[in-house]
Write a structure and sequence with these properties.
- The structure is a single chain.
- With 504 residues, the protein is of the alpha/beta class.
- The protein folds into two domains: 3-238, P-loop containing nucleotide triphosphate hydrolases (Rossmann fold, 3-Layer(aba) Sandwich), CATH 3.40.50; 255-334 and 421-504, P-loop containing nucleotide triphosphate hydrolases (Rossmann fold, 3-Layer(aba) Sandwich).
- The chain has 17 helices and 22 strands.
- It has helices at 43-50, 73-78, 96-101, 115-128, 144-157, 174-189, 201-207, 230-238, 297-304, 327-332, 342-346, 353-358, 375-388, 405-418, 435-450, 462-468, 491-498; strands at residues 3-14, 17-28, 32-37, 58-63, 66-68, 81-84, 162-166, 193-197, 210-215, 218-223, 256-266, 272-282, 286-290, 312-317, 320-321, 335-338, 368-369, 372-373, 423-427, 454-458, 471-476, 479-484.
- It has a six-stranded mixed beta sheet, with helices on both faces.
- Strand 7 (162-166), helix 6 and strand 8 (193-197) form a beta-alpha-beta unit.
- Helix 4 crosses helix 5 (144-157) and helix 13 crosses helix 14.
- The relative contact order is 0.11.
- The structure holds adenosine-5'-triphosphate and magnesium ion (MG).
- It is found in: Cell membrane.
- It holds the Pfam family ABC_tran.
- GO terms for molecular function: ATP binding; ATP hydrolysis activity.
- Residues 5-241, 258-502 form the ABC transporter domain.
Length: 504
């Protein structure tokens, strides 16, 4: 097979950081080519260069053997390259169809947008590749997995032949991953080429035809799955042995920290999302919540955080009914919150990292000092987080946007655990972090649990749920359908419970 994309000697520097250095890569037509590497290794930067979003300082890109210079994504799209970003870029207040056609509206001679033709084309694409989306739904109503399918449809709509997917599976549950992989295989059998970034080595080994490894900005190896294994890949990425996870043994305490009693949530347009949910999380306990995305997890989190109000029933934290409290009051009462969408809800992207330490914590000590913000404390503690969570950044003064996705995530985890909350709501706490950082975050959660923190863990990662949870609550169709003991449950049983099947 000939190389459809060749990348030679790419260099890209940011202030204080070499993001890409002497990057060389050859992608064959019709293959699935995985790119792996630690957080901050330069994967997204390289993909943005290939997509024309970022200009390299030097180096060459060849598409179909011809040298190209992309000045913007329009140039790369014209050559059939499409990209789905690590962080989605959809307009919330528009429909799926509007989002798909945004920027490439089909017009008739009069300049009128031909919505019907566009809808027909989108429906054909979704049928061909089995992408389950509804063209007329509002994007704001979609879960992360659905948003991703919209992004993929959008790229295909523009006629992409080479698809770049930056961590597409980070946000998916196992069933959805299987579905995505079937879609990707389908696409390659139609002659499309897929470049795919992932931190999940099992996945990469199962789906990729070729694997390229990046470390510290440069390509260090290219291997094929049949000639390597997880351990070797991890060592190629990290250049050292991985930290081991600590064993948990002590029993959780008895003090009820979070108590949800018979809570329902009905949306303003009368959709009943949560039905009679009751849950308790005790001090020193990690309660895992497992479920296929879109089964009420987001609303459950929003209800606890005071972002939506329960329609009936109540939520209390340490014995205080917080059903009518504001989000601010709930946080200030000692609740840490790692949101699932880090860029939308977790960070001010254009503010320096140290200011992001204050975000959400501006009203209580140590970040607040009477009426004043304690900037010195924010800076000092940001330095500590950078060390404790191994956040790769040139300094705490750079904008949050300058950090790689995984490093942004590590910073948020550090911040939300910093003030030792009594309750931590951890939604997808290791989404998008590399294997080493995942072990680090798991250890931090386990240590906090041992110190008495109550943790509600919402995760799409079954390994994470099994490894960390003292108990596992399964949510399906907005109901808690089972509470399981992870030591007595197999992943298959959990999978069945998640899809609403009764466990035999
Ligand atoms: N716009 C930017 N300004 C400054 N520095 C940047 C910018 N974008 C990326 N960097 C830096 O370049 C390096 C590579 O980042 P990149 O996002 O490519 O990493 P990555 O391999 O995709 O990591 P992750 O797995 O965490 O997504 C990082 O050190 C990051 O901080
Ligand atoms: Mg990235």
């Amino acid at each position: 097979m000939s190389a459809i994309v060749e990348i030679q000697g790419i260099e890209k520097k940011y202030p204080g950081v070499v993001a890409n250095h002497n990057v060389n890569l050859a992608i064959k037509k019709g293959e699935i080519h995985a790119i792996i590497g630690e957080n901050g290794a330069g994967k997204s930067t390289l993909m943005k260069i290939l997509y024309g979003m970022v200009m390299p300082d030097s180096g060459t890109i060849l598409v179909d053997g011809k040298k190209v210079i992309f000045k913007s994504p329009q140039d790369s799209i014209a050559l059939g390259i499409g990209m789905v970003h690590q962080h989605f870029m959809l307009a919330d207040n528009a429909s799926v169809l509007e989002n798909v056609i945004l920027g490439s509206e089909p017009t008739s001679f009069g300049g009128v947008i031909q919505v019907d033709a566009a809808r027909a084309k989108l429906i054909e694409i979704t049928k061909n590749y089995g992408l389950d989306i509804n063209p007329d739904q509002l994007v704001a109503e979609l879960g992360v997995g659905e948003r991703q399918r919209v992004e993929i449809a959008k790229v295909l709509y523009r006629g992409a032949q080479i698809l770049i997917l930056d961590e597409p599976t980070a946000v998916l549950v196992p069933q959805e991953v299987d579905e995505l992989f079937r879609n990707l295989k389908d696409l390659t059998s139609h002659g499309l080429t897929i470049i795919f970034i992932s931190h999940k080595l099992d996945e990469v080994l199962s789906i990729a035809d070729d694997i390229s490894v990046m470390r510290a900005g440069t390509t260090v190896a290219s291997v094929i799955p049949s000639k390597t294994n997880k351990k070797e890949l991890a060592e190629l990425m990290v250049g050292r042995e991985l930290p081991k996870r600590r064993e948990v043994s002590t029993k959780p305490g008895l003090e009820k920290i979070l108590e949800i009693k018979d809570a329902t949530y009905v949306t303003p347009d009368h959709r009943e999302i949560l039905h009679g949910v009751s849950l308790e999380v005790h001090s020193g306990e990690i309660l895992g919540v497992a479920g296929v995305e879109g089964n009420g997890q987001s609303e459950l989190i929003e209800m606890i955080m005071g972002l939506v109000k329960a329609s009936s029933g109540n939520v209390s934290i340490m014995g205080h009914d917080i059903s009518d409290s504001s989000s601010r009051e709930i946080r200030d009462s000692g609740v840490g919150y790692i949101p699932q969408d880090r860029q939308r809800d977790g960070l001010l992207m254009s503010a320096p990292l140290w200011e992001n330490r204050i975000l959400g914590h501006q009203a209580t000590a140590p970040m607040a000092n009477g009426f004043w913000l304690n900037k010195a404390a924010a800076k000092k503690d940001s330095e500590r987080i950078v060390v404790d969570l191994d956040v790769r950044t040139p300094s705490i003064n750079v904008m949050a946007a300058a950090l790689s996705g995984g490093n942004q995530q590590k910073f948020i985890v550090g911040r939300e655990m910093a003030d030792k909350p009594s309750l931590l709501i951890a939604a997808q706490p290791t989404r998008g972090v590399d294997v080493g950082a995942q072990a680090l975050i798991w250890n931090q959660l386990i240590e906090a649990r041992l110190a008495g923190m109550a943790i509600l863990l919402i995760s799409a990662d079954l390994d994470e749920l099994f490894n960390l949870s003292d108990r596992l609550a399964v949510i399906s169709g907005g109901k808690i359908v089972a509470v399981l003991d992870p030591d007595k449950t197999t992943p298959e049983q959990l999978g069945l419970a998640m899809t609403g099947e009764k466990i035999a």
